[in-house]
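step=encode ok
step=design start
structure_in=
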């Protein structure tokens, strides 16, 4: 089991890594390669671009709910066609 939330080393934030705990997912090359490949899939790429734009526009200014709701699909108008 990974304990990333309790990690004080934060090797994942360093480009070259190093000195990470034994149970760090960065020690598993196949897992990291798969994560990076999925990170760049078209759907994920678009998601990260949109969320970065929202964060850039509203961080520290908007409540978290507004940031989240900012890009949710709008419900259909009452009586509108589906």
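sequence_out=
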């Amino acid at each position: 089991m990974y304990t990333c939330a309790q990690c004080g080393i934060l090797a994942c934030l360093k480009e070259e890594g190093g000195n990470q705990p034994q149970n760090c997912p960065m020690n598993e090359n196949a897992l990291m390669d798969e994560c990076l490949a999925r990170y760049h899939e078209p759907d994920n790429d678009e998601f990260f671009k949109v969320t970065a734009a929202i964060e850039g526009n509203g961080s520290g200014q908007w409540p978290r709910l507004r940031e989240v709701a900012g890009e949710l699909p709008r419900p259909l108008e009452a009586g509108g066609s589906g």
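step=design ok
step=annotate ok -> The radius of gyration is 19 Å.
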